[in-house]
Design a protein that fits this description.
α3 (33-56) runs antiparallel to α4. With 250 residues, the chain is an all-alpha fold. The radius of gyration is 18 Å and the shape is globular. The protein folds into two domains: 1-129, no CATH class; 131-250. Helices cover 75% and strands 0% of the residues. The mean pLDDT is 95.
Length: 250
């Protein structure tokens, strides 16, 4: 039994970067970092294995990370418990019947965009939640929404075969591209504001500018396919590393 495959670690390990960035923006108690990374891992393992349980009829492997997540609540403050509970609620109603928001256009996309972005806030709220944290949350939400729209565009044919009505199936690739442009440039203007109020440095801003322009150009010139999805993921991880180091330099 390979736990890395059961819990699809390769599909979510990079999302732990949101916790890292949020944590280092607000905390100097680095001894607690491992707890939050473990907690984030259990949340993500639950999300992906719970989805597999409903989509593919796999065994209830999700119970183990869910139990570990709940046990670690004792290590969190009230705001983090609230955020983690919202995360668990979102990923549960996303996959499970009768709601199964995965088959509800717009709700399905928002679940993924908001859910993964909440990991940033869980790391950020080591002390408390403030306006800067909310702005950062929106910044990462924009990037996650683009990722979700690209993912849905690639899977349109597969979702149609399974009779899953996603945002992509409803709108089609052309309209999804337009939504990608909107959220890419919303992320840029949000980052520009963070730079203006001196929360991020020029390296953070430059990385965002390059990322937004690069993928705007890609979307204009290329069709949305698996290659574009892979590039967005790879460049997103690379950008995340730069964001992380730029925050350490602040």
């Amino acid at each position: 039994m390979n736990l890395f495959e059961i819990y699809r670690v390769k599909d979510w390990y990079y999302y732990l970067g949101f916790i890292l960035i949020g944590f280092f923006l607000t905390s100097s108690f680095y001894s607690r970092l491992l707890i939050f990374l473990l907690f984030g891992s259990f949340l993500l393992a639950y999300a992906f294995s719970f989805n597999d349980f409903w989509d593919e009829g796999k065994k209830a492997y999700f119970l183990f990370p869910l139990l570990l997540s709940i046990l670690l609540f004792i290590s969190l403050n009230i705001m983090q418990i609230v955020l983690a509970s919202i995360f668990l609620f979102i990923v549960t109603v996303y996959s499970a019947k009768p709601l199964r928001l995965k088959s509800k256009p717009f709700f399905s996309s928002l679940c993924n965009g908001i859910g993964f972005s909440l990991l940033f806030l869980i790391g950020y709220c080591v002390i408390n939640l403030d306006l800067n944290g909310i702005i950062f949350f929106f910044f990462f939400l924009c990037f996650n929404m683009v990722s979700q729209f690209i993912h849905e565009a690639v899977d349109i044919d597969k979702d149609r075969e399974k009779r899953i009505l996603t945002t992509g199936v409803l709108l089609g690739k052309r309209k999804l591209k337009k939504l990608c442009y909107v959220f890419l440039w919303l992320s840029f203007f949000t980052c520009l504001y963070l730079f203006y109020i001196k929360i991020v440095n020029f390296l953070f801003l430059f990385t965002t500018i390059f990322f937004v322009i690069f993928f705007t150009n890609k979307l204009i010139k290329c069709k949305i396919d698996r290659n574009l999805r892979k590039n967005y993921k790879t460049f997103g991880i690379f950008a995340g590393f730069i964001y992380f180091f730029s925050i350490i330099l602040i």
